[in-house]
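Input.
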Amino acid sequence: MALNIKDEETHRLAQELANQNGETLPTAVKVALQERLDRQQPNPKAGLVEWLDELSQRTAPLLKDLPPSDKVGDLLFDKEAGLPL
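Output.
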């Protein structure tokens, strides 16, 4: 496959990029195109912080009546036998 760049400015930019990175012209073009495509892909982590914040706000009221952390074991294990309930 061949890519024929007829625009002088585009060719100059590609050549400058290749020279700066010590790459061949095809490699510079390929990497630049891949990086741009990657930036345009939806970020799977976008909105994660907002989602976690919303989850925390919704679940916090449900957790307010829990015993202190040092007492949680009393709910899970028999004190005398030490076995799970």
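Residues 7-85 form one domain.
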